[in-house]
Design brief:
Layout: H1 2-9, H2 35-45, H3 58-74, E1 77-78, E2 85-96, E3 101-105, E4 108-112, E5 118-121, E6 128-138, E7 144-145, E8 150-151, E9 162-166, H4 192-201, E10 206-210, H5 213-216, H6 220-226, E11 230-234, E12 246-250, H7 252-261, H8 266-273, E13 281-307, E14 312-322, E15 327-328, E16 338-339, H9 342-362, E17 367-374, H10 382-389, E18 398-403, E19 415-418, H11 426-437, E20 440-443, H12 457-461, E21 467-472, H13 480-494, H14 510-528, H15 542-551
Parallel strand pairs: 6-9, 9-10, 10-12, 14-17, 14-18, 18-21, 19-20
Antiparallel strand pairs: 1-13, 2-11, 2-13, 3-4, 3-13, 5-12, 6-13, 7-8, 13-17, 15-16, 19-21
Helix pairs in contact: 2-9, 3-9, 9-14, 11-14
Length: about 550
């Protein structure tokens, strides 16, 4: 399928970076990638003494020290001037003493309980969050996408108002990948992160997303657990983007009750919101609540190494992986309460070192190679987002990158899983690398879940930098897809984000090493290329990249 998507866009001129017909994709010989390095670092990072690698703990100190030591041994140079680290200031905000969500209007006085009916948090570092008599406006999917001719905020001033927003995007539920928002494949506009950011840009005081299990891809129990308790954020500087007073979620039944009180029908408005002609609907009701916030500030660290380029050292190809995990967590039946995160993501962290070693052995390519181990992925992609907002190497001079998030131990496969195929011309490089390795690409089987927007590369993508996210395949040489799906299911149900994601000396590393060879080829191709692959026409990130390129004196 990825080949079809690439072919469909192969003749499109891709803006300021590189016309399609001129892509330079060099041949690359296989790299000398050390399995011993992968095993050793994965084993070490998974030890109980690392306490699950939670940011701000002794586990972080041990992890950062190990990465600095191994990056130096690999032959990299410090990536942040003379330092190996970038300080990441984090703030943890814990809401408490929640008042009900009060919805009022002419003859209307509704009250909804926190947790059961709604959840909300504040991103502002303030002791009290007060939302007072804020006018409710139904804004459909809350999307403003000029490149798609779509604006759910058309004609309304949202200053001080509360946006009621549908989850996912307008063509969710279609069977194909065709439609104004890529059919059943979720776009960035379908993610809750975008909806909150856009509501804030529109001047809204608050944003409330209507939860619906199918388009959200998770139940209310996930929302309730994720949006209560401590919430961590990267501290924002003086030029921070606008913030709402509160962001949250409504149970679908609660949203229906509110709309009914306003003389509206949720199903009818939801159908109208799927049309380009939709306009916002003021509900004639107000919302209000209040809660207190406890705050804790602390520092974490991204670890950065660089192999300077031999010809164009001010052009960068980036590799990312998160070093953190969950620390101590809900105990297993045997009492083990350390979430070691061996697969997620000790393997990806080890891969940064193994790839660095291989590239150093092969000699510096034309462009610089950056190896970035980011913190606080499990708390919301915070380390990656902080780097992308405060880049050590300018994003306009960053050609593109590869993200590595958990190598599932499953043996060799005939394929790899491509998350978010057809988004950028990096797919051309991937096609070439797969052909050289004798493998094929399988698109993500659940495009509606929006997995492209849920890992560290997304922090770069939304700021315009083309990024690849490739997972291991499931068509195993030994057992085919049935065996591959069984391995994934077993990990997801028995080890993922739990104390039993532990290292085993019995692991078969053959599939991981094959995937690393693919990532080596991709990194080296990009680093020796003269091209600047852009997003395809119509992609939600292309305008940002084009603007970045147009403003740059160097780079793309």
């Amino acid at each position: 399928m990825i080949r079809t998507l690439i072919a469909a866009t192969a003749m499109i001129a891709l803006g300021a970076c590189t016309p399609a017909a001129e892509l330079d994709i060099p041949d690359v010989e296989p790299g000398e990638i050390s399995q011993d390095t992968m095993v050793d670092i994965t084993r070490t990072l998974s030890l109980d003494e690392f306490e699950g690698r939670m940011p701000g703990t002794i586990g972080e100190e041990k992890t950062v020290a190990l990465l600095i030591e191994r990056f130096a041994q690999a032959g990299l140079q410090p990536g942040n001037g003379e330092s190996w680290v970038q300080q990441v200031p984090l703030v943890e905000i814990t809401g408490k003493d929640f008042a009900p969500l009060a919805v009022r209007g002419d003859g209307i006085d509704l009250s909804f309980d926190f947790g059961k009916d709604w959840v909300g948090v504040s991103y502002r570092e303030e002791a009290q969050t007060i939302l007072a008599d804020s006018e409710l406006v139904f804004v459909g999917y809350g999307i403003n996408a000029p490149e798609r001719g779509w604006n759910d905020y058309e004609g309304i001033d949202m200053t001080g108002k509360t946006a009621v927003i549908l989850v996912n995007d307008p063509d969710f539920g279609t069977e194909s990948l065709e439609g104004p928002f890529n059919g059943k494949a979720m776009t960035y506009y379908g993610r809750w992160t975008y909806k909150y950011e856009e509501a804030a840009r529109q001047g809204a005081a608050a944003a409330l997303i209507v939860h619906d299990t199918d388009p959200a891809s998770y139940g209310w129990n996930v929302v309730e657990s994720s949006w209560s308790g401590p919430q961590a954020y990267a501290q924002r500087g003086d030029n921070a983007p606008p913030l709402t007073i509160m962001n949250g979620w409504l149970q679908k039944g609660v949203a229906a009750q509110i709309l009914e009180a306003a003389g509206q029908d949720l199903a009818t408005l939801s159908a109208a919101a799927r049309e380009e002609s939709f306009t916002p609907v003021p509900l004639g009701l107000t919302a209000g609540t209040r809660f207190a916030n406890d705050m804790r500030s602390y520092q974490s660290q991204n670890v950065i190494g660089i192999l300077p380029g031999s010809e164009r050292a001010d052009e960068y190809v980036i590799h990312t992986a998160h070093w953190d995990h969950l620390g101590r967590c809900t105990p297993a039946p045997d009492g083990d309460d350390i979430c070691n995160g061996a697969v997620d993501n000790a393997t990806g962290t080890a891969a940064l070192v193994a790839l660095a070693e291989a590239h150093v052995k092969a000699g510096a390519p034309a462009r610089s190679l950056v190896f970035l181990a980011v913190t606080a992925e499990e708390q919301g992609l915070l380390g990656a987002d902080y780097y992308a907002a405060n880049p050590v190497f300018p994003l306009a001079q960053t050609v593109g990158g590869i993200n590595m998030d958990a190598f599932l131990i499953a043996g060799t496969s005939r394929d790899v899983t491509v998350v978010g195929p057809g988004k950028s011309r990096l797919d051309d490089f991937l096609t070439k690398a797969l052909e050289d390795d004798g493998r094929v690409a399988t698109p993500n089987p659940s495009p509606e879940a929006g997995y492209y927007y849920r890992s560290d590369h997304f922090a770069f993508a939304k700021r315009g930098v083309p990024m690849l996210y490739v997972d291991g395949g499931e068509d195993l040489v030994d057992g085919g897809r049935e065996a591959g799906e069984a391995v994934s299911k077993d990990y997801r149900e028995n080890r993922y984000h739990g104390p039993k994601d532990e290292f085993s000396e019995d692991w078969d590393w053959s599939g991981v090493m094959a995937d690393l060879q693919l990532f080596y080829r991709l990194g080296r191709m990009l680093a020796n290329s003269t091209s600047w692959p852009n997003w395809v026409e119509g992609d939600e990130f292309k305008a940002t990249r084009d603007e970045s390129c147009a403003a740059s004196q160097t780079g793309c």
